[in-house]
Amino acid sequence: MRAVLRTVDRVLLGLVGLVLVALGGSVLAIGLGAPAPSWWLHDGPHDVLLSTAERTRWRDAGWWWPVVIAVLAVLLLLALWWLVAVLRRRRLGEVLVDTGDGEGAVLRGRALEAALAGEAGRVDGVERAKVRLVGRRDAPAARVRLLLAPHVDPGTALDDLTTRALSHARTSASLRALPSEVHLQGVRHRAERVN
Question: How far apart are CA 186 and CA 123, in angstroms?
Fold first, then answer.
């Protein structure tokens, strides 16, 4: 899916760029006095892009405004989808592992996230763990969210996470460092009744 999004992103950027360069360059060239090409809509530097007749041509047609609004809504939804897809890709797709032979190996980011979350979830008192890798493939960083049981000391849980799960992940992926941002949250529970 990531490769498809990357390809769509590049194709869309290339097409939008080509259209903008062609139109902008043509307008600039004709405005500076170059002869208008045969495919160009207007004749010379003093011609307007949209005449009054062209601007008001479809104003009285009942279908015009719904079609314009629908097309603009579809373009807005596509632009928002594209923006969300680009922003969601901030998750690290792969981690470069130094194998010592100069070649290196590639480890899937989601595999390392799953292993790190699994080990973090086994820390005493951790109800649930979520891990997300960010950064560059040769210098990853981890964002960890831990949901702690009510009886757990947050300092102990953080120390266990650091000395076990994060240390093992850094060692197994042959990373020099694995900077981590850890968010701790307690499980909601009812107050205990004392008799």
Answer: 14
Residue 84 scores a pLDDT above 70: yes
Q: Could you give the C-alpha distances from 114 to 81, 135, 176, 192, in angstroms and in order?
A: 27, 17, 20, 34
3-class state of residue 40 by DSSP? coil
Residue 195 counted as domain residue = no
Which residue, among 141, 134, 145, has the nearest Cα to 177 in the 3D structure? 141
Pair 108, 165 in one domain: yes
pTM tops 0.85, yes or no = no
> What count of other Cβ atoms lies within 10 Å of the Cβ of residue 161?
22
Number of structural domains, the chain?
Answer: 3
Please check whether residues 81 and 120 belong to one and the same domain: no
20/83 same-domain check: no
| DSSP character at residue 149 | -
Contacts of residue 23, Cβ cutoff 8 Å, sequence gap at least 6 = none
- E strand segments, 16-175: 94-97, 105-108, 126-136, 139-148
With cut-offs at 50, 70 and 90, classify the pLDDT of residue 8: confident
Residue 166 belongs to what domain range?
94-186
pLDDT tens readout for residues 41-74: 666 667 776 777 877 777 777 887 788 889 999 9
Q: How far apart, in whole angstroms, are the C-alpha atoms of residue 155 and residue 7?
A: 45
